[in-house]
């Protein structure tokens, strides 16, 4: 008597690549991290390449320039009480952005403790720091353009490449900060509304706060390099 073999027993196991595609397309974890965190790391890696190219290009242009480069201490000074204070605005901007990293880290800590109200409030504070930073950057740009006459194609204080490199790099970074502010506010509002909570308001997944924190810490880190190369060199 011939035994009947079921189709399931005769089916060949899927190949490794097919299984890999099936796992990833079903939103499985990749490399022991969630898809959201993995994609943020990939985005930040690509952004690192872009900023590295910008800063390398800036250093190359500055070293190769035959025209004297403007003195940052004089260009970015503020007149306080009749005296020129070098890099005062830049120091305040740096302090504000670095402080925002502290509030963002606290927000991530409260998120993992499932204290979503405190986490959301700290994200709003972080976003407020970001708004202050961008506002001071707008003031800095306005001063250079309206008072100093700096343009992307020219600069009355020295090397003409100063304007193009300055506006390109600081503008690109300011765009990242502005996008980060919108991102933080959006996540904070959704957090307050309980959009990341599980059934019955328990067991929520607040990893989105950590993912937003990764982006914000990256923006802060990039500013450290811009500050060192553009304002202190």
From TrEMBL:
Heme-copper oxidase subunit III family profile domain sequence ranges: 40-233
Compartment list: Cell membrane
Keyword terms, alphabetized: Cell membrane, Membrane, Transmembrane, Transmembrane helix
Protein name: Cytochrome c oxidase subunit III family protein
Similarity comment: Belongs to the cytochrome c oxidase subunit 3 family.
Membrane-crossing segments per the record: 38-65, 85-112, 119-139, 166-192, 213-232
Pfam families from the UniProt entry: COX3
Membrane topology: Multi-pass membrane protein
PROSITE patterns: COX3
């Amino acid at each position: 008597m011939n035994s009947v073999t079921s189709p399931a027993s005769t089916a060949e196991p899927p190949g490794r690549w097919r299984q890999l595609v099936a796992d990833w397309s079903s939103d499985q974890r990749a490399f022991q991290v969630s898809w959201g965190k993995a994609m943020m790391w990939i985005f930040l890696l690509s952004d690192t390449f872009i900023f590295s190219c910008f800063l390398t290009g800036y250093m190359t242009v500055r070293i190769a320039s035959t025209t004297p480069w403007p003195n940052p201490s004089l260009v970015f000074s503020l007149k306080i009480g009749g005296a020129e204070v070098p890099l005062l605005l830049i120091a305040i901007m740096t302090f504000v952005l670095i402080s925002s990293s502290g509030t963002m880290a606290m927000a991530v800590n409260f998120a993992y403790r499932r204290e979503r109200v405190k986490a959301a409030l700290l994200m709003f504070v972080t976003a407020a720091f970001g708004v202050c930073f961008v506002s001071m950057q707008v003031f800095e740009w306005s001063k250079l353009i309206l008072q100093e006459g700096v343009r992307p194609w020219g600069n009355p204080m020295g090397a003409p490449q100063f304007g193009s490199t300055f506006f390109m790099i600081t503008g690109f970074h300011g765009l990242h900060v502005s996008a980060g502010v919108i991102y933080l506010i959006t996540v904070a509002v959704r957090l307050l509304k309980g959009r990341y909570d599980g059934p019955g308001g328990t067991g929520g997944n607040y990893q989105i706060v950590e993912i937003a924190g990764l982006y914000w810490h990256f923006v802060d880190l990039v500013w450290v390099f811009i500050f060192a190369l553009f304002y202190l060199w």
